[in-house]
Amino acid sequence: MTEKMWTEEELDRAIGDQPEGPAFTAEARERALARMLAAEEKPRNRWLVAAAAVTLVAGSLIAVPALWSDDSGTTASAAETLRRAAAATTAQPRPSASQYQYVATHSWDLGSATTGTGKPLSVLFHNLNEVWIPTDRSAEWLERRAVLDRRWLVGSEELAASEGDGGLFAEDASTKERRGPCGDFPGMNPDLGGDPDWGRPCAERVGAWHEPNPRFLASLPTSPQALYDRLWTDSRDDAENALSNAGHVLASPEASRELRSALYEALLNLPGLRVVEAAANLDGRVGTALGVSGEKTRDDIIIDPGSGRYIGTRRVLLQPAEGVPAGTNISFSAVDSAVVEHAGDKPAK
């Protein structure tokens, strides 16, 4: 049976009472997009999308206009934004030998399924993932994951209980805590993704753009042109991949000021980069959105050029998918970090 998708107006009404400021992990974003686009070719009875069709900024679904021209070079406005960010970038606090790097990711994730009789179900889940990373990365890390809330868009608790939830509530709302050295937490599957670092001693792990550990960050040049050449080659000459890879490094609390500044300047060379929104709101923070477009989606990074602060990323559909209109934000990522004294500590607000 084909699943029902909801219009922008219906979703606006359903989520109008939601709080501002969703944020989404890179992993959830990539899974979401792959599943959405795959649905055009292969039907299925359940999909889980990180904020697919849902942008909870100001409590409504947002369609972001494309503001770029047809030429392939970086626009003057994008270049000026990047130059200002590069010049304004400052150093980030670094933990001492006994302290921890705290990283928190909030996300609103949309889960959809069907009951045993084919009735549609759709729920928004508010997730929080917190990680405490010791300065000695081979020591024990702490991770806490929790589902903080859920809001029904279609269906109800009673309907799911009586006819089955289709796997929608496979994970309960209690906080899950895991500990492990070097971020190797119990239950992680080393076969997923074929990560070449799996099984290596912590000090020998090389890292990657999507997993920028200190060794990987130290391997990156701080000359903007050399850094761009490395980024472009590693991204297989693909502008969307390059922007995504750059975003992981810009988001890393372990990336130096020099590296982040050089990366902003390196992105001046990225073909097709445009300012797509001058005042983009992500997680309550306002910055300038820079984007590159592919065949079906546009990837944006959002930065504050006045402070050099990297705010996050988002992905926008350029073509309709599963009834979601073109121009819809389908995912966000925003990560907050701080230095704390002990594992389990929260930064002062």
Mean pLDDT: 78
Number of strands: 11
Question: How many strands, what sense, and barrel or not for the largest sheet?
Answer: 6 strands, antiparallel
Low-confidence stretches: 1-26, 35-72
Beta-strand portion reads 25-35%
Class by helix and strand content? alpha+beta
Compute the separation of the termini in Å.
Answer: 48 Å
- Morphology: globular
Report the C-alpha radius of gyration, rounded: 20 Å
What is the number of domains? 1
| H/E series | HHEHEEEHEHHHHEEEEEE
Supply the number of helical segments. 8
Percentage of helical residues? 10-25%
Could you list some keywords that capture this structure?
349 residues; 5-stranded antiparallel β-sheet; 29% strand; globular; disordered N terminus
Strand and helix map with partners:
Elements: H1 8-15, H2 26-38, E1 47-49, H3 76-88, E2 100-114, E3 120-134, E4 140-154, H4 157-163, E5 176-181, H5 214-219, H6 224-234, H7 239-251, H8 257-266, E6 274-282, E7 285-293, E8 297-304, E9 309-317, E10 329-333, E11 335-340
Antiparallel strand pairs: 1-2, 2-3, 2-11, 3-4, 4-5, 6-7, 7-8, 8-9, 9-10
